[in-house]
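Subject: for your reference before the review

Hello V.,

The reviewers asked for a structural picture of the protein, and I figured it would be easier to keep everything in one thread rather than splitting it across files. Below is the amino acid sequence we used in the manuscript, unchanged from the supplementary table.
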Amino acid sequence: MKICLACSAGGHLTEVLQLALVYKKYDHFFITFKRKDSEDLSKTERVYFITDPKRNIIKLLKNIKESITILLREKPDVIITTGAGVVIPTCYIAKILGKKIIFIESFCRIFEKSFTGRLIYPIAGLFLIQWKELSGKYGRKAIHAGPVF
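And here is what came back from the structure prediction:
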């Protein structure tokens, strides 16, 4: 099995790195955007940098092209993501390609759904929340899994 770990740099990357005991057992790679922490990660892991669309249509189109290229090259079986917006196109493209999507809602989302969570919920095969207080906000598919930290 090959795992794609897709997330924004910063806190979302910090959360996904907490899953190392799981993903290190498998062939894996990261999709994120360039920032100091993600550039440091690229020294020890296979990391693909994509454009952060930041609600800009030209950057979004570039992100889509980059995501398609990476997913067709790497052919992952599953996408594990903690968000945020930079990976929404990656997840939808992966779903179109028949890949499984696992979404882990951000640790900071205790009472309200995230923008990314709202968009990924319909396509996620497994949708995990970290706080009981968020139970019932999404629907039956959302599973309280506890914190990743």
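For the response letter, the relevant points are probably these. The chain is about 35% helix and 20% strand. The mean pLDDT is 95.

Happy to draft the paragraph if you're swamped.

O.
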